[in-house]
Amino acid sequence: MKLYQNHTLKEYIHQLGSRAPVPGGGSAAALSGALGAALISMVAEYSRGKTGSPAREKKNLQILKESQKISRRFLEYVDLDAQAYLQVVRTRKSPERMKKAALKKAQAVPLEVCKLAYQTLVLTPFLVEYGNPHLVSDVEVAIELLLATFESAMINVKINQL
Asked: Is residue 15 in some structural domain?
């Protein structure tokens, strides 16, 4: 399976809208998180040299590095979610212990997506206060994407309960 993170946007959206079992909602939630984290990175990039003090510059650089790292991790979860769900599908007619193991993994992936969404949301207050004031709307969009990521991933955590 070609990694979804290596698809073009057009390919990914086409696959998402098809009758294929993956990608699905969990993968889309992770992609939404990657977009939110990338927006945080963009705002931090544009805020470099404009935060008003060396301490704030250091904090801004930490936010930039952390948001870039989180965005890459979200992209990994785009694929990990699809792989976990495919395992659930494969074990539907398997013994109960195999089904439970697949469901446990399918629950763990979106739970990690929730954690990443929270970690990214924690980065935003600094950018609202000290970041480039022309990009506050981008921070707000990032927040909305990350909240949607969190809520969407929680749906998958609940549906995959043992």
From this structure: no
Model pLDDT for residues 10-37, shown as the tens digit of each residue: 999 999 999 999 999 999 999 999 999 9
Q: Write out 121-142 in H/E/C secondary structure.
A: HCCHHHHHHHCCHHHHHHHHHH
Q: What angle do CA 97, 98, 101 make, to 5 degrees?
A: 85
In a domain, 122, yes or no: yes
The token pair that represents 81 in the structure block: 């979610």
- What is the number of domains present in the chain? 1
The 10s digit of each residue's pLDDT in 49-76 is: 999 999 999 999 999 999 999 999 999 9
Angstrom distance (rounded) from CA 109 to CA 104? 9
